[in-house]
Design a protein that fits this description.
With 48 residues, this protein is mainly alpha-helical. The chain has one domain. It is built from 2 helices and no strands. The protein is globular. This is 8987_t:CDS:1. InterPro entries: Sel1-like, TPR-like_helical_dom_sf. It comes from Ambispora gerdemannii.
Amino acid sequence: SAESGLNISQFKLAECYRYGFGIPIDLDLALKWYQKAHENGHDRAGEL
């Protein structure tokens, strides 16, 4: 899961916050989760 440090989960959670998939759009939380995903080695998260 995202909170346990799994970078793909962190990236997907960031996408949910960015685009409002099932939750209200929150760009601050999206950025937080993109950063965490990048720190944990997710390549695409660093491109955004």
